[in-house]
């Protein structure tokens, strides 16, 4: 029996004018029965113009509005409404996407394939820009890599698409571009942490699910084409840097924090140098001010108490699959504002191997690419 699914799409200002039509058409073309899923469009920083456009362009979608631009809070509003409407599975997806006709069916099947699976992610491909690229699309994400210092990186980015069998386990975190989560998981871990505002919110959601004992898997036959454009801004820098610290201070137990403290200090020193050299030292100062506030630590203490309640596994069981190497090329591209993108591949450029060695032994952090764990392939469908 097909469970009722709530699909949450978040708009921000004029986003809908550019992306909604193709996204809507691909949702209307889904194999999954239309009567078994609802689309919720959360209009962040809503205006009369955006509301009018959404209601006219996608009349069957449920329209919800918010005044500010808090992405995490917008997703929570969509999840709340979907729960009230009786949905049992919840999809978080980007609007700058085109979904394959079997996207939703495969995503739902993947998360329902095993009681231990809590979240599943689609295979996310880069939206082709030419006929040739449609024949040979490239990968955006096959599940994301988690660095033990809170950085996140896409796995498989830029590689040519290729067949993947079974449901490979995602040992980092699932991308919020297209993921599905069970109701029982949300009931246990809660929704999005609204303090994050934007960026790393998917890390927080997935870390909580893993902490509660759930597995994350890739649904390789659930295909979505993402109109991904790498961009950077001062606000993006602020939330990504601040939120990786919130994640570490929320989920790591105190002994783990003390263990990785030298690495945190070493990385922070490197980031401070980068911030001065790259001209975003004011943003770095703003982040420091956030953590000097007592109110911030009171919030983090509350997050830690909630994490403790849901904890079913040890830090070691989660962190052993985190990366010990910074994927520096992408980080460098992000941090440099002068357009002069440098190259550094080795961790010594940002974090000495001297710090990584003890972590490999004590926490089991891997400094090389790990091997995905797979579950058996899907049995042929009788449908």
Structure commentary:
This protein is an alpha/beta fold. The protein folds into two domains: 222 residues, Spore Coat Polysaccharide Biosynthesis Protein SpsA, Chain A, CATH 3.90.550.60; 127 residues, no CATH class. It is built from 14 helices and eleven strands. Helix 8 runs parallel beside helix 10 and helix 9 runs antiparallel to helix 10.
What about the largest sheet? 9 strands, mixed
Number of strands: 11
Unreliable residue runs: 328-362, 366-383
Helix content: 40-55%
Number of helices: 14
Shape: globular
Order of helices and strands: EHEHEHEEHEHEEEEHHEHHHHHHH
Helix and strand topology:
Layout: E1 5-12, H1 15-28, E2 37-44, H2 48-57, E3 62-65, H3 71-84, E4 89-93, E5 97-99, H4 103-112, E6 117-126, H5 131-135, E7 139-141, E8 144-146, E9 152-154, E10 178-182, H6 183-189, H7 201-211, E11 215-226, H8 234-251, H9 254-278, H10 281-292, H11 294-310, H12 315-319, H13 328-335, H14 353-362
Parallel strand pairs: 1-2, 1-4, 2-3, 6-11
Antiparallel strand pairs: 4-10, 5-11, 6-7, 6-10, 8-9
Helix pairs in contact: 1-2, 8-10, 8-11, 9-10
